[in-house]
Amino acid sequence: MCPVPPMPACSVPGPKYHGPLHCLTTVAREEGLQGLYKGSSALLLRDVHSFATYFLSYAILCEWLTPAGRSQPDVSGVLVAGGCAGVLAWAVATPMDVIKSRLQADGQGQQRYRGLLHCMVTSVREDGLRTLFKGLALNCCRAFPVNMVVFVTYEAALRLARGLLT
User: Fold this and answer.
1) Angle at Cα 153 formed by Cα 144 and Cα 160, nearest 5°?
2) Model pLDDT for residues 7-27, shown as the tens digit of each residue
3) What is the pTM of this model?
4) Angle, in degrees to the nearest 10, between helices 136-165 and 75-105
5) Chain centre to alpha carbon of residue 4
6) Above 70 in pLDDT, residue 93?
7) Environment class of residue 69 by beta-carbon count within 10 Å: exposed (0-12), middle (13-18) or buried (19+)?
8) pLDDT at residue 109 above 90?
């Protein structure tokens, strides 16, 4: 049996934050109050358009999938409408989600972006237009089944509430 020399200890740094409160105080101390809101403009632009797409597409698809003579779609119609609404919402949200993530991660070392527009222009110039859609396929694979369940649950709760009120 050959003796194995001990491995030298790796100097891998530990995590920067030791919990959510430590993260909050560290960011506020290092970057000021504005550091806590990094990426919020991109978040607002992402959510306004994506939620409008989400609920509008769900309502339109429910209308299309409602059988003749009925006022509401059946469960399968709600499942399809909910899944498609989730996918459409992420298709609209993904570009701003990418920009939001880049802005939030910026400053780990040296700050690279001057703001939302600069981040968007720089990202497209350096990485191409496709960079704005990174993660879209994975988000859609997740969004379809999740939003099927969300809207079936929503419709069931709505029907239950209507039954209790009448």
Assistant:
1) 160
2) 655 566 788 888 999 988 988
3) 0.76
4) 130
5) 48
6) yes
7) exposed
8) no
